[in-house]
Amino acid sequence: MAGDDSGGAGASRRRRGTADADKGKGQVPDVADKPSSSKTVQSTTTAVNKDATPRTDPALFQPQDADAHQKLLKRSSVWQWIEQGQVALSAGRGEYWLRCRLCSTVFRGSSSKAVHHFLKPQKPCPFRTGEIVDELVTNQRGKVKPSDKKTEYLLKNARGLARCPEGGEEHVESGSDAEDPLSEPYAPTSPGAVCSTANCTHSCHGK
């Protein structure tokens, strides 16, 4: 009788162990996946921050203070429309991050690159004016390519307006003025002198 009882208890324990094992098969632990997922997100964020520049993220641009900007203005008038920021990554080449005050475009370079921003044929500053182009060409040695018709137009238009008085118009001689001899100036004559101009109606002929 004791042997039967022990045998029955052992069989019962085996059945419970089998049932618990079956329950465990349906459960997949997800704890091991959490550290791997967090590491992936962290590495991706680090990579993005490492590659970010003032060009890709304008919030990273750090403009020079007012005193430094005034010194730049004394060197070149282009700094009226361009801000200089921090040194670019390739230190030692004299390149800084630059930002246009008109269109907010951020790029890297020196003062020559700043001038080029307004005079380049492809995608120049969309808010540039003829006066800016004239200033950079006249005083900053900027060059306009002959094939760049838009910049040429801005330059010629600005220089044409500069030659005319404010609010005035250039006088163009008409054909009738050129053919009419009476419209030509003549020298004053003394009383009694004979004028050499044909068909003269002046008082010198007593008419």
Protein described:
- The chain is mainly alpha-helical.
- It has a domain at about 60-160.
- About 45% of the residues lie in helices and about 5% in strands.
- It has helices spanning about 1-25, 35-50, 65-75, 110-120, 130-140, 150-165, 175-180; strands spanning about 80-85, 95-100, 105-110.
- The protein has a three-stranded antiparallel β-sheet with strand order 1-2-3, with helices on one face.
- Strand 1 and strand 2 form a beta hairpin.
- Mean pLDDT is about 75; it is low at about 45-50 and about 170-185.
- It comes from Chara braunii (Braun's stonewort).
- This is BED-type domain-containing protein.
Key attributes of the depicted protein:
single chain; 207 residues; mainly alpha; 44% helix; elongated
